[in-house]
Amino acid sequence: MHSLYGAEPSYAVQAEDRSGWIFGALFYTWIGDLMQRAAREELSADRLPHPMREYRAYNAGVALAAELQRQRARRHAWDGYVGARVGVLWDDASDGVLRWVGAVQQYGTPQQLYAGVEWRVAPSRRCGGWAGRCMRRLLCRRGRSPVPEHGPGAYHRGEVDGEHLFDPVEDDTVLTCERVEDVFFWREKPEGEARGASATGEGPGGDSEGGGGGTSAESGIGIPAPPTCMSVTRALIHVLRWQLLLLGLLRVTVEVSTLLTPMALSWYLRLLQSSADTPSAESASSGASSAAATSSELSSSAEGESMRGGAWQTLASVLLLFSIALVRSLALQKYIQVVHRNAYAIRSALSSCVTAKCLCIASRELRRPELNPGRIVNLISTDVASVESTLYVLWMTVTVPLQVCVTVFLLYRSIGQMAGISIVVLLLSLPVQVVLTRMTYAYTLDMAKLSDARIRFVNEFLSGIRSVKFMSLEDIFEREIDERRRVELRAVRRFQLVSIATSLLSQCVPTCTTAAVIVAYYRTGKPMSPAVIYPILSLLGLLDIPFEVIANLIGVYAQFLVSMRRLTSFLAADDAQAHDILEEALVSGEGDDASAVLCNATVSTYKAVPLPPPRSRRSSGEGDTHYELRAKTVLV
């Protein structure tokens, strides 16, 4: 790490580091000095607060790069065991040699690693899948099925649909690609002991599913667990696991405070209503019993005690409302601060990892069409930004459904079966919202594609403007550009219509739901007291959140998954090795078309034999004559 990133820059302790956990972290008292300096116009650039140590680009990038290095080591855990004896879990009689470990692109499973095995004794095919394995275990039987023609277990000679994987060593062997989870390493035992173990059913594979953790008698060390593919998502979760846990606690605090507000408001309104009804009732009772002096004294004392108790309860309800609002405000502001800090840390870490990968990526990886300079620029500008936006809505995916369930339960306790109206409207509108969101995402992609095609066509037109002028093709190109623009505007119009429908649904459905619930509750004949109506309105307002969030969540997560696949594909590419760089440096420009290059070599050959000319030059008789040299000895 330090050879690529260098030593850690020095870090000076700031006022935020010296602030306390309560006043400094929650009330931000350390900003007071900065605000006073700014008010006096004494705040300079060197006195501005710098990023904290764990959020700096260097520290965040090194932490993420170290986790990716650990994943890379896990990905290549079996590379040192190429040439070892292996078998498959469902067939103890299988015996082969491990030749290759990696992902097969032609199988269409980029997140699954396969082991290329050269079999001396080919395994029987497993039939029935998961259900078949369970039935065979219950019946103590082994099943067989025909060898598949494509996919894992299919026979080949080191190539799968034109993709070269590895070369066979022997000619009379069978080559297959098996999942790494299904492969185990054989122990080297004497022949008699091995036969006895096979006869008694005590082979390393057996019926267990964890064949990757056996022990090899050849090396005397434990075989590592099966390798796994690299994943930037797992790396980010591992690096930010404590920050994500803190965000979860803060978000839960915000949602709980939001749900407690209608309950505290209901209690406060009931106290106000009871205090307003008590004096009138007591005055009526005192007018009817004014003749007895003893009862008057008792009623006055009871009135004083009830007034003191009601005052304390009212004061407690006000303090409760204030405390809930204070806790929610503190938790929400701290949540926003932690989200922004971690989002910028993720952006800096991913940008540094992509930049570092550009310095050490193998040249053969850059031959892939998708790994061009424009793609790498988009990785930093677009994909990293999508990861940053996902962090804002990460915990809302968990808390919003829970909040909706609790809100519906509280509505049912308050108004009974009338809460079913909100549930029905929610269930009917959410599928429509999802469909509109998918249409929005599809039309966004169409607009981007059409815009890119139009801009590319205009660039080609401008680059060849001289030829266009010479051939008088201006009208043809003008009509083509106008047609492409009209198609693009139609896509923009469709996108705007869907956006308007989505906005209309998000704004009108909650209002109509609230009106329908209130009207239905009024038709039941129950009292419309403020202690009931205001908490109901507050709870119905919480049901607006799914309509506001669902449209954003689907688009954010769709872009996040695409960005993670692109970033993982780039960061999981092989690094340049020293011998590859040396070979590229030794090969001169004259030997680019040669199949072999000999440097500083003495060759003793037989008589040179002229080779027949190519078919394309036989008729003309022109061209160079090539000779075949059959070497006796080669001294290098």
Q: Radius of gyration, rounded?
A: 37 Å
Question: How many runs of DSSP E, i.e. beta strands?
Answer: 11
Structural class determined from secondary elements: alpha+beta
CATH class of the largest domain: Mainly Alpha
Structural commentary:
One of its GO terms (cellular component) is membrane. This is p-glycoprotein e, putative. It is an enzyme of class 3 (hydrolase). Residues 191-222 are annotated as: Disordered. The chain is an alpha+beta fold and 636 residues long. It has helices at 2-5, 15-18, 23-26, 31-39, 57-75, 129-139, 191-200, 232-239, 241-288, 293-360, 373-392, 396-415, 419-463, 465-471, 474-523, 530-542, 544-571, 578-586, 615-618, and strands at 85-88, 91-102, 114-121, 159-160, 163-164, 174-179, 183-185, 602-605, 609-610, 627-628, 631-635. It has a five-stranded antiparallel sheet, with no helix packed on it. Helix 15 (474-523) packs across helix 17. The relative contact order is 0.08.
Main attributes of the structure:
single chain, 636 residues, alpha+beta, SH3 type barrels, ABC transporter transmembrane region fold, 4 domains, 5-stranded antiparallel β-sheet, two-stranded antiparallel ribbon, 19 helices, 8% strand, elongated, ABCC_6TM_D1, ATP binding
Summarize the structure in short.
This protein is an alpha+beta fold. It contains 19 helices and eleven strands.
Describe the secondary-structure layout.
Elements: H1 2-5, H2 15-18, H3 23-26, H4 31-39, H5 57-75, E1 85-88, E2 91-102, E3 114-121, H6 129-139, E4 159-160, E5 163-164, E6 174-179, E7 183-185, H7 191-200, H8 232-239, H9 241-288, H10 293-360, H11 373-392, H12 396-415, H13 419-463, H14 465-471, H15 474-523, H16 530-542, H17 544-571, H18 578-586, E8 602-605, E9 609-610, H19 615-618, E10 627-628, E11 631-635
Antiparallel strand pairs: 1-2, 1-7, 2-3, 3-6, 4-5, 8-11, 9-10
Helix pairs in contact: 5-8, 5-10, 9-10, 9-12, 9-16, 10-11, 11-17, 12-13, 12-16, 12-17, 13-15, 13-17, 15-16, 15-17
